[in-house]
Specification:
By secondary structure, the chain is of the alpha+beta class. The chain is built from 13 helices and 28 strands. The strands form eight sheets. Strands 1, 2, 12, 13, 14, 15 and 26 form a seven-stranded mixed β-sheet that branches. Strands 8, 18, 19, 20, 21, 24 and 25 form a seven-stranded antiparallel β-sheet that branches. Helix 1 runs parallel beside helix 13. The longest helix is centred in the C-terminal third of the chain and has 18 residues. The C terminus is likely disordered. The structure holds flavin-adenine dinucleotide. The site of flavin-adenine dinucleotide has 42 residues, from helix 1, strand 13, helix 7 and helix 13.
């Protein structure tokens, strides 16, 4: 059978595309997902607090590992990726962050990217979401979209102490980090609805799975995209141990930031010299495939608590049956939260235009994968949000089952290292404010032996983990440094092939990247179907100003758009609107 669209990867972006494209009954859509189905009985997926279980488990996770990282003493960094319907949205931490509006201004400042500024992205953020806590007249938030989200309660007394401590340290609170002002601290939105994880598959795919023009195959591993000349005409897929050739009018690659460049390279689209050296027939020389890899690295800064108020008891093995039972019977209790209920965004120095550090606060001291619990304690996760470190992904052979080589080059730049030192010092300052006096029983990690700049960097090199936000490896743009066309999502130089997933980002955004990936998919659906794009929304958003009223541009970020610079003093609020606010041009 021939399909109009074959979607490779039933993950986050793939689920959104499948829903939107199959809404046209005249289009036949096939989704091919390498992982299993996301059965409703699978507690590890659907119980929010079980989020650490799928990591490292071959039934859910591709289980990647970086090459020895050259600026981390050759340490290999483990990297989880969802391998199940819903992709990484079925195993992620459920934190919903759009990024800063300035992220999109930065995208749009590059040649050809004008239609990706905040004004053009905002209507798609709104279309996809149902922000249950937001007032109906909030111009930033959506209320009718498939992604229902709840606000973290953040009522543990340690959260109260944290929000007081950040203010004592001189940082503001904000109403909504996804609204007018990202900068500051607040409770976070989570993709949790009525005690359940709401993955992209559950929000977008399952509600329409009965459409006669939509077919979803799981355990279907795509090994190659097939071309006739320069036109993609389908793919080879291994399903039930049989290889089948699928014919399609268009191939939509949604394999994620690691698998999408890998599959392009295996299929002959990438840096020609490297592909030829491996014996791959080159279809098109696109050197940027797999380049520009960006990510967020993070550390845990942990304190012991004097008082037994943390959520540590709920995570103890002996208490898990009760937690599980409360969740199964009533969808309540410690099983119904991801524990990432609040945090915030700040600038670590006066040279950055918008927040470059993100904080997650947890009322427990434990690693993300559930290991090394520290009794009653609390912690922040912190790390730079738009590091200028760049890595790459390259296939090592023509075997699609062999993992590609992945190198992030964490800590490779002066700016990155500077921000790491600032991040650790600022975090300690916050966690040592008087608001924590009733709880602060000393720093557990990194501990007092880590004091000088070099000691901090050595500790980060040894102890940090990825925040699991690989991106930009098939980035939007019009130059040599890009892979896909900003007006169509088509891969440069070939026909019938588009990439829509976290690899499409121009630059990694400030915060967790699931929401930006879904926005990209929503906007791409209109581009693919030839719909009139949603009209841009020119809503003023917060931009920080220096005390002399000038806006800040640090070279990595775009200069703030017109409208900034009318503030009223140090750290003043200055509304800015998008620079390219004219009617849609896509
Ligand atoms: C453990 C973890 C925690 C995270 N926590 C958060 C968080 O709290 N908040 C947040 O915003 N972000 C978080 N992220 C990141 C975020 O979830 C991802 O960046 C985002 O979901 C990526 O979406 P995607 O569509 O690019 O890829 P994915 O959702 O990963 O989808 C890709 C899909 O393609 C499939 N696939 C790949 N290759 C093939 C092939 N050859 N054939 C067939 N199918 C294939 C994969 O199996 C997968 O299902 C986390 C990620 C992980 C892994």
């Amino acid at each position: 059978m021939r399909y109009d669209y074959v979607i490779i990867g039933g993950g986050s972006a793939g689920s959104c595309l499948a829903n939107r494209l199959s809404a046209d009954p005249g289009s036949r859509v096939l989704v091919l997902e390498a992982g299993r189905n996301d059965s409703l009985w699978d507690v590890y997926i659907h119980m929010p607090a079980a989020l650490s279980f799928p990591i490292g488990n071959r039934f859910y996770d591709w289980r990647y590992e970086s090459e020895p990282e050259p600026y981390m003493d050759g340490r290999r960094v483990y990297h989880a990726r969802g391998k199940v319907l819903g992709g990484s949205s079925s195993i992620n931490g459920m934190i919903f962050q759009r990024g800063n509006p300035m992220d999109y201004q930065r995208w749009a400042a590059d040649p050809g990217m004008e239609t990706w500024d905040y004004a053009h992205c905002l209507p798609y953020f709104k279309r996809m979401e149902n922000a249950l806590h937001a007032p109906p007249d909030n111009p930033f938030r959506g209320h009718d979209g498939p992604l229902k989200m709840e606000r973290g309660p953040a009522v543990n007394p340690l959260f109260k102490a944290f929000f007081a401590a950040v203010q004592e340290a001189g940082y503001p609170l904000t109403d909504d980090v996804n609204g007018y002002k990202q900068e500051g601290f607040a409770a976070f939105d989570r993709n949790i609805y009525r005690g359940h994880r709401l993955s992209a598959a559950r929000a977008y795919l399952h509600p329409v799975e009965d459409r006669p023009n939509l077919e979803i195959r799981t355990r279907a591993f795509v090994t190659k995209i097939n071309f006739q000349g320069k036109r993609a005409v389908g793919c080879d897929v291994v399903h039930n141990r049989r290889t089948e050739t699928i014919e399609a009018g268009e191939v939509l690659l949604c394999g994620g930031a690691i698998n999408s460049p890998q599959l392009l390279q295996l299929s002959g689209v990438g840096r020609a010299s490297e592909l030829l050296a491996l014996g791959v027939d080159v279809v098109e020389d696109v050197p940027a495939v797999g380049e520009n890899l960006q990510d967020h690295l993070e550390v845990y800064i942990q304190y012991r608590s004097k008082q037994p108020v943390s959520v540590a008891p709920a995570l103890k093995w002996r208490n898990r049956p009760w937690v599980g039972a409360a969740w199964l019977l009533a969808r309540r209790g410690a099983g119904a939260t991801n524990h990432f209920e609040g945090g915030g965004f700040i600038r670590s120095n006066e040279d950055v235009a918008y927040p470059n550090l993100m904080y997650h606060f947890l009322p427990v001291a434990i690693r993300y994968d559930g290991t090394a619990p520290q009794g009653h304690g609390y912690q922040v996760h912190v790390g730079p949000m738009y590091s200028d470190a760049r890595g790459w992904i390259k296939i090592k052979s023509t075997d699609p089952r062999e993992h590609p080589a992945i190198q992030f080059n964490y800590l490779s730049t002066k700016t990155d290292r500077r921000e790491w030192i600032e991040a650790v010092r600022i975090s300690r300052n916050i966690l040592n404010q008087p608001a924590f006096d009733a709880y602060n029983d000393g720093e557990l990690s990194p501990g007092p032996s880590v004091e000088t700049d070099q000691e901090i960097l050595d500790w980060v090199a040894k102890d940090s983990e990825t925040a699991l936000h690989p991106s930009c490896t098939c980035r939007l743009g019009v130059g040599e440094d890009s892979v896909i066309d900003p007006l169509s999502m088509k891969v440069h130089g070939v026909e019938g092939l588009r990439v829509v997933d976290a690899s499409s980002m121009r630059y990694v955004t400030n915060g967790n990247i699931y929401a930006p990936t879904m926005m990209l998919a929503e906007k791409s659906a209109d581009l693919i179907m030839g719909n009139t794009p949603l009209a841009p929304i020119n809503e003023p958003f917060y931009v920080h100003q220096r005390s002399d009223g000038s806006a800040v541009a640090d070279g990595r970020t775009a200069a703030p758009s017109e409208g900034a610079g009318e503030g009223n003093g140090a750290g003043a609020e200055a509304p800015a609107t998008s620079a390219s606010a004219e009617s849609p041009t896509t």
